[in-house]
Each structure stands twice: as structure tokens, then as C-alpha cells.
Design brief:
The structure holds 2 protein chains of 2 kinds. By secondary structure, chain A is an alpha+beta fold. Chain A has helices at about 10-25, 30-35, 65-90, 95-100, and strands at about 35-40, 45-50, 55, 60-65, 110-115, 125-135, 140-145, 155-165. Chain B has a 6-stranded antiparallel β-sheet with strand order 1-2-6-7-8-5. Chain B has a two-stranded antiparallel sheet with strand order 3-4. Strand 5 of chain A pairs antiparallel with strand 5 of chain B. Chain B: Pfam families: 4HBT.
Chain lengths: ~170, ~140
Amino acid sequence: MSRKPIEPVQVVKQRRDAALSGLVHGVPYVQYMGIEFDRRGDELTAVMPFDEKLIGNPMLPALHGGAIAGFLETTAVIGLAWSVLWEDIETGNFDSDELAIGHLPRLPKTIDFNVDYLRSGLPRDAYARARVNRSGRRYASVHVEAWQDQRGKLFAQATGHFLMPSKQDG
Amino acid sequence: MAHQKVKMAKQFISAIPHCKALGMTLTEIGDGVAVMELPYDLRLVGDPETGVLHGGAVSALMDTCCGAAAMSHPSSPAGTATIDLRIDYMRAATPGQNVRTRAECYHITRSVAFVRAVAMDDDQDNPVATATGAFTVEGLS
């Protein structure tokens, strides 16, 4: 048995980035909120750059709780879809051209989402990472942490449950 | 007098940049109850294949409406901030239809307001989502 030849780094990166970009840029709400994802290997960090339209309390000023919830939910859904997609991307069982023309894989559906607001969101960029604590055939549980200036000082966290898309749906 | 309060609350909500950006409107408020509406908007779609609104947009509506309900409670002196909010998504909101939320502050202490809310589209018999949350009660001082 001969081993598969190791692919050049650019080929691997291009495929991973194309998959991520298709996933993120295909969703209008994610675009509207200005949310982007940084990738290091399989690790994703969601970034929501500050924008005036995200303000919920103009007096403080502070980010809107709903904008924060939307940011965390986006981080959870994309993080979960990415973790499921990862294996297909790595084995090449995945058509990034399909994604590029807007054929998204079916995304997980939120069953419930519980946000803890730990401190007010400052008028700065916000970051978040999702951890998939359990991913089964039908259900998944995901935890999200969000911070601004200091990684150790979370301003919000959330736990959500998701219904996984069935494989037959493509 | 009550009419004046409603007008002020409407102005207050419409001055919130995120609510303005999403096009939310307050239709009813008073005694711990608030009703708000979010118009269907293609920019807020979460699933481009079906055109269903993203959960984040519904969350923003629920959060604002719950906060407004907490603030409108007779025992609430001033502002409020969300401590926690849990949303259960019963079904996808029908594409093209507006989402309406009714929130009720069912208990309030000196420090915490407890609020629940229901979100509906045109099908009034089947809720789109429900929410429960705890909000701070900010003193006047």
C-alpha cells in the first residue's frame, strides 16, 4: 500500500479557505452583521468588527444584547457546520466549486440558545470561539465564549442545542 | 398621560441604532407588557435556500421587547440590561412574513426583572419562538 502523496500547503489552504468562505459569505445575515472568521488549521475565531448599527445603548455606549446573541449564534452554527465539514474537506470529498456558486451544505438548525451577558459589550471589535461539546447524528451541543480586548475576560457566553441536517438532504 | 409614555417609549426604541438598523417598531407598551414587530428583510436571512430569517434577528427582537417590558413595569425605576436570555425555536418563521413579539415582565424584585416572550408570524396558533430572560433593575441613583 502506497501512502497518498502529501499535498502542497497552498493546495490544502486554498481548499480549506474556499470551504470556509463559502460557508460564511453565503448567509446574508452574517454579511449584514459584518462577521468574519479567522482560521488557523481547523480552529476558527469569529470576528465582529465594531459598527454603529450594533449599538443597543447609545448613552454608555454598549453593544445591543441581540447583536451579541446573533454573533454568538452565528459562531456556534458556523463552528458546528465547519467541524462536520472538516473531514470531507480533508479527504477531498468535498466540492468547493459547488460552495463557491452558493450551494451551501445544509446548516444545523438552532433548537435553543441561552446567552449569559457577563459585562456590557464595549464599542470595539468582538471575538468568539465555539466548542462543540457533543455532536451526534441528530443533535449537537455547542458552547461559545466571546471577548473583546482581553481573551480571559469574557463579555458573553452561550450554550445552544442544534438539530443536525440529515445526510440525505445533501 | 399614558399616551405620552407610549410615545416616549417608541422614540426611545427608535433611537437604538441596532433596532433602527433592523427596522423594529414598538406597537404597544405599558404595565410590564410590550409588543414589537420586525419586518421581513432579505438582508436578515439566515438560510439563503429557504429565505428563513436568521435566529440572531429574532434574538434581537426578543431581547429588545423583553427589555422594554421590564422597563415598562410600574416597579421599574429606570433602565435595564440583559443578564441572561434563553430562546427556544419552535419552527422557522415563514419567509416574507413579519415577526411579532409580545413580552411580559411577570415578576420583578428590587434587583431583577423576570420576563417571558412569544414570537409569532401570520400563523397565530403556532409560535415561532419563545424566550425567557432575567434583566437588571437599574436604580435611579
